[in-house]
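Quarterly update, task 2.4: NAP-bound model.
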Amino acid sequence: MKVFEIGDYSKGLALHAVERPEPVPGHGEAVMRVRATGINARDLTIMHGSLGKTVMPYTRVPLSDNAGDIIAVGAGVENIQVGDRVTMSHYWQWLDGDWHASMSEQDYSATLDGFLAEQVVVPAAALIRLPDSLSYEEASTLQSPGLTAWNAVVEAGAARASDTVLTLGSGAVSVFGMQWAKMLGARCIITSSSDAKLARLKELGADLGVNYRTNPDWPGEVLELTDGEGADIILNNVGLGEMENCLMAAASNGRIMHIGANPVVHNQEPQEPPVLTKLPNLILKNLTVRGIIVGSRRMFTDLIRAMVRNDVRPVIDRVFDWDDVYGAIDYMQSGEKIGKIVIRVT
Ligand SMILES: NC(=O)c1ccc[n+]([C@@H]2O[C@H](COP(=O)([O-])OP(=O)(O)OC[C@H]3O[C@@H](n4cnc5c(N)ncnc54)[C@H](OP(=O)(O)O)[C@@H]3O)[C@@H](O)[C@H]2O)c1
């Protein structure tokens, strides 16, 4: 079966296809035939050789988003059967309850081989059955950006219909954040470097748009648009470089979700954080700054149920075929997309 390995990244992207033996499930495991996968910002980072302190072996198979069907199960597997259409989160050990940092040691595409492969051995306990109404392509957008935005807006953010949710950029996490906010009846302000993208985002549901490139004082514009109040929930999908602006744009009792961790723009280091001179806003406005790490299997199950009940469809910019993986990566690096890029595997 065919997989893609990241290769010798010392001189740049070296992703290449190799043949591996078909995997055999062990006790408690199943084999997923991957039908669709998606590229995320972190995948480009991984393909360049590291994620945080984790240095990648050249043989690492990237991509954490996934949807497929089960073609074999190992001994002791009772929750899932051959033929089931499934998906799972890449931090597979977070099934329910509280997160623990040790769970990051089991991370599909970072510490374990990921889903840019025809078949992957997966832990049966992590699997979630897909409803018929979700296609493989749609389901393969959810694991990283959909679930992260769900955690930020619904779980940690506890969004209410009376809230204003501000979400940064037109990337995958941001667009899902907009969709979850609108699903709950909240008002959504979204930012982008492009007026054309902002126009499209309004068609997709955003109430208001702010161009952070043409207006470097975008927090000031957010305050104007909210009659001086600011945003109740902010998805900082960029990183510490935008934290001070988020503090400025927040409403009293606002909740700022610190999500962006890797460069959101290819070949660009994450923005250096300014000295947080506006930190007193934390006290004056009674703000909460909260780190978000994807979400649990239980949250993922809730997300899928809510999507089906509310007929929410992921925003897929383009679907690439299995023989055009490099085209998908080039398009991801171009920065032209809104929402998600998907690769149809078989
Ligand atoms: N904490 C977690 O668990 C978690 C989970 C998933 C992702 N992440 C991280 O979240 C970030 C976003 O991921 P993604 O998959 O959504 O990325 P993405 O789809 O590649 O989106 C990147 C977008 O960010 C926007 N952007 C760049 N610089 C910006 C700035 N200064 N201000 C506002 N927007 C800016 C751009 O939007 P425009 O083109 O519209 O300007 C760009 O298209 C990445 O750092 C990723 O590693 C973290």
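Highlight for this quarter: The domain at 2-141+314-344 is CATH 3.90.180.10 (Quinone Oxidoreductase; Chain A, domain 1).
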